[in-house]
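User: I'm writing a tutorial on reading structure tokens. Could you give me a worked example: one chain, its sequence, then its tokens, then a sentence or two explaining what the tokens reveal?
Assistant: Sure. Here is the example chain.
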Amino acid sequence: MSEIVPSAASSALDELLEVSPQVDAAVILRRAGGGLLASAPPTRDRMSDQFGATCVRILEAAEQSRVELGREPIAQVEVATPEGHVFIVADADHVVAAVTDADPTVGLVFYDLKTALRAVREAAAQSDNGLVVAVAEDDSDDPDAAIAGRAGAKWRRKKS
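And here are its predicted structure tokens:
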């Protein structure tokens, strides 16, 4: 697999933590198999993997319920406890999940997670098409300013 998608996932989570102070920790996974693409804050222990696996199981249970009820596919899930919330947003290929404090602004957290998911989805699509370039955050017109792997780079479709 291209390193572009995990890099985009890591960048998306960095931005998520920056813009959403309610989010304490987050992961981005592959929906099939639950493979961890990125975690924030980054950890070297198994907590991110375990959290990701739990989120995949929650999504699977919600999906099973929705099938039994004849409803539309699951796009997001929230689990609320007195100590905090777990938010899960998914598309066909990826899952973004986050843990917040006990009183988050639910709509804003879902919006921020969907933004992170969109960034990963776009990077994956561009990677599959071989049309990925890194563009400096200042969106400079200087093509030499676009350096792959540069911190803070945004992934965009290469214009033909």
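What the tokens reveal: The chain has one domain: 4-157. Confidence is low (pLDDT under 50) at residues 131-160.
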